[in-house]
Structures are given as structure tokens and as C-alpha cells.
Design brief:
Order of helices and strands: HHHHHHEEHEEH
Strand content: 5-15%
CATH topology: Jann2411-like fold
Radius of gyration: 18 Å
CATH class: Mainly Alpha
Helix content: 40-55%
Number of strands: 4
Distance between the termini: 64 Å
Mean pLDDT: 80
Largest sheet: 2 strands, antiparallel
Strand order of the largest sheet: 1-2
Low-confidence stretches: 1-21
Length: 215
């Protein structure tokens, strides 16, 4: 069984079903799989096995049936579940650190990208042309073996962005209290906010209130 196609289009905002105290209980607004995964670290809260499966399910990396099977893994094989969760946490931190460097127009350090390479080394797969919304695009199809393949598409997505370096359209939200990244696929490449609903509209309302107060 191969994982279903994972990328969301840059303008997609996929509403996520409520999950109590879940760091994934926001829209996937990063525009790239790895950016959405890195953003989970900025949302706070405990990152649990359930949260990881929830994210993988919403990004169509696993099916609902596969998610249901994996949900029982911490009971049937706790060491395997714990190992993957730890690797996922390292990958999250690696992506966030690397993306932060890119936004600052710096080259990510070797130590920052090592957890990404760690996943890429142990997962096998291939590139494949997949049709999405009447367009063909190249996707990495991970070969299912062990559990590391669950993170393969995320690591590959992050590697693609890091390899773009100076040409990357990766941005940080202009709201300094936000902390979310996004991939700017806008026509003018001048997008400022992770989303208008989350930060852009709040900024406009606050700016309007300041102008009214100064009058």
C-alpha cells in the first residue's frame, strides 16, 4: 500500500476536525507539507501519538483505516511508537530551525538538517507523476517498510525547500506573536500573513483602532 498524495495546493486551507488540546486544531495554512508540520511546534501543547496520526491523516499520508490500526500501536508495541514519535519531534525541530534560517536569509547549519537526512536515509521510495486538480506534479511515494515511511514525505518536502535556498518563497508571518511559516505562492510574492483570518484581519482591526484613538 502506498501513501496517498500529500501536498495541499498553496492556497488551500483545510479545516481540521476538533481534537481536544491538539496542536493540529488549526487550518493547514503553510502551503507545503513540511511547513505545516514545522508549524505544529509553534502552536504549543503536547505533541502526542494521537496528534501525529491526526496530522498524517489530514494530510492524506495515511488512510482512515491505517490510522485506526496505528492508533493501537502504543499498546501493542510501545517502543516502536515511542521511537517514531521521538523521530517526528526531532524532524519538527529540524524543519523549524532550518526554515528560520532561510527566512533570515541564512544557510541552515549541517546539524539543523541532520534529522531530515536521518529520515531520508532510512526510507526507500521513488518519484512519481501524480495528477492533482488537472495538473501533473512530481510526488515522492514512500515504500512502506517499518514506520519511518510515515515521515518520508514530510522530510522530502522539507529537503526540497531547503535546497531552494535563496529562491525559496518561505516566509514568516508578519505578526511577531504568531510564529507560523508559510510558503508564498501568491502572484506578487508579497504575502505577509499566515492567513487573513488568523492574523491579517486582526492586524487591520488593531491598526484601525489605533488610528481612531489618535484622532
Amino acid at each position: 500500500m502506498r501513501p496517498p498524495p500529500h501536498p495541499l495546493s498553496p492556497d488551500d486551507s483545510l479545516p481540521i476536525p476538533a481534537l481536544p488540546d491538539s496542536p493540529t486544531s488549526v487550518s493547514l495554512i503553510g502551503g507545503r507539507l513540511s511547513v505545516n508540520f514545522a508549524n505544529l511546534a509553534a502552536l504549543g501543547g503536547h505533541f502526542s501519538w494521537e496528534n501525529l496520526l491526526h496530522f498524517l491523516l489530514l494530510c492524506r499520508i495515511i488512510s482512515p483505516e491505517r490510522s485506526a490500526q496505528l492508533l493501537a500501536l502504543p499498546r501493542s508495541d510501545p517502543s516502536a511508537a515511542d521511537a517514531l514519535l521521538r523521530k517526528a519531534d526531532r524532524l519538527r525541530a529540524s524543519l523549524r530551525e532550518s526554515f528560520g534560517a532561510i527566512v533570515r536569509r541564512e544557510i541552515p547549519h549541517h546539524a539543523s538538517v541532520e534529522p531530515i537526512n536521518e529520515v531520508l536515509r532510512v526510507t526507500e521510495g521513488h518519484d512519481e507523476l501524480v495528477q492533482e486538480q488537472a495538473k501533473w506534479q512530481i510526488e515522492f511515494i514512500a515504500r512502506e517498510g517499518g514506520l519511518d515511511w510515515l515521515l518520508a514525505a514530510i522530510a522530502r518536502s522539507g529537503a526540497d525547500i531547503i535546497a531552494e535556498v535563496g529562491n525559496a518563497r518561505l516566509r514568516a508571518c508578519a505578526n511577531p506573536q504568531c510564529g507560523l511559516f508559510f510558503y508564498d505562492a501568491s502572484r506578487t510574492h508579497r504575502r505577509r500573513w499566515c492567513s487573513m483570518a488568523r492574523c491579517g484581519n486582526r492586524h487591520k482591526v488593531a491598526a484601525f483602532a489605533r488610528r481612531r484613538a489618535s484622532q
